[in-house]
Design brief:
By secondary structure, the chain is of the alpha/beta class. The protein is built from 14 helices and eleven strands. The relative contact order is 0.15. The structure holds pyridoxal-5'-phosphate. The site of pyridoxal-5'-phosphate (PLP) has 14 residues, from helix 6. The site of pyridoxal-5'-phosphate has 14 residues, from helix 6.
Length: 458
Amino acid sequence: MDAGELLRRTAERAIEHLEGLDERPVHATATLAELRGALAVPLPDGPVDAAEVLEALATAAEPGVVGTTSPRYFGFVIGGSHPAALAADWLVSTWDQNAGLYVGGPAVGVMEEVAARWLVDLLGLPGASSVGFVTGCQMAHFTALAAARHKVLADVGWNVEERGLIGAPPVRLVVGAARHVTVDRAFRYLGFGNGAIEVVPADDGARLDVPALERILADGPDSPTIVCAQVGEINTGALDPVGAISEVAHRHGAWVHVDGAFGLWAAASPRLRRLVPGLDRADSWATDAHKWLNVPYDSGLAFCAHPDAHRAAMSTMAPYLERNEDYPREQLDWNPEFSRRARGVPVYAALRSLGREGVADLIERCCARAQRFAAGLRDAPGVTVQNDVVLNQVLVTFDGSVPTDEVVRRVQADGTCWLSGTTWRGGPALRISVCNWQTSDNDVDRSVAAILRVAGAA
Ligand SMILES: Cc1ncc(COP(=O)(O)O)c(C=O)c1O
């Protein structure tokens, strides 16, 4: 079969998958043993026709594919795939540009340049902020915190890129108790031991306690300091008061980094922007496009209000590389990767297709559907919605005949929707994360009915 026919057939299979999502269980149906049995064939000695391989792998994989792009997938924080972003992603693979340098793909370089400016504007960040298109929020933390490490040490006369951390002035790492694990992991990547992290207690809404931050900063040594805030706590969606945190932290000369893996998108909605007052006063921000913007994996975004620090932390050059003097944002300067996929292109397509109002509508709709979930669940006997549903996350516990962890297991097996569990205040809880562009009121109602049925609370 020629390549054109193979690609047309593959597109057909992809479309069949998408169109079948409403009918099939959201969870994967094949067991690990079945998947291995179907996929772990001996490595062929010689070539096999590509069409045969694609047909075989797609057929074997389908029962092992989770319906993460289904409008009733509410696990972890996993967005769907907006059609414009998905189609653009196909083109990215087809073009196979190396987005590390302008010369490796001029058109994708310009699309990323444009998308970067759109994002800064849409999220209300300082106009001169630099942007890195990275794989996910984990690497966005790494990138932004590398910039932070550069700046706070440069401020006391230490060039960390040149001299490393051995013998460097100690850096204070001050984080909220409800931070995401990826913050600690980014610090590890940057050569900071997790034992050095100073934790600010959270208030009863899982937000960083600002007076406690003030005390910790005032009581500790006057060293270079990085403070990490968060908008969008993984269980509750709680948002730290970034403006107030920045005011306190900046008084102590600290850098403020914001984990906004999903919550940063509240800033793109005129109605929800009030949830993130003072967001633009921080120094760096990390978010994902693969979560709430509904861009396919993998797509994270690092923003930095100090482009010089960002560039100093990331930039590299080699004699064989060609810089384009007319293009001011060679990707090598803003990303930890060297060669890389043009992952800003699906972001560009999503933003251009949704427009400013479409992004706001996507975010607001998901929040409204989270409220609908909470309303549908909270009046049922033995069901408690544990959080103040401020954003798109709903946290639920059950004290009826079926314990919470068993409810989670049964919902997952039922297949109407998919949710994940967590630990909340020492006990199990069920998490609902609404971040798919397609989720309708009907999807919520079907899911609420399924949850209450398996919980014996219908
Ligand atoms: C608050 C928060 N920060 C960071 C991350 C990590 O994001 P990623 O998996 O894209 O690296 C997540 C993922 O759910 C998150 O919710």
